[in-house]
Task: structure prediction
Amino acid sequence: MLKFALYAVIVLVVALLGFIFASRNETEVALDLFLIQPVSFGVGLWVLSSFIIGCVVAWLISWPSHVALKIKNKNQSRKLKNQQDEILRLKGEPAKGN
Result:
């Protein structure tokens, strides 16, 4: 719960700073996207949107390795528990939870 609250506060602060940045940089810039007719928005909006898109792309790139590490961690934890149970069995002590 504390982790979620911290993330929420950080997101709100970044959103507020982004809003202030966008409102102070209102100069219109027409950007010619390859397949779309030129789109005109404020400089602040273009900078913020490129930052957000960059964050999302970076998260998408790092996500598979994060999932792989979680799976590896789960497998290692399972192996460790099995080895601890095996040690207890070889010592002649009953395993906990059985």
Notes: The first strand starts at residue 28 and ends at 31.
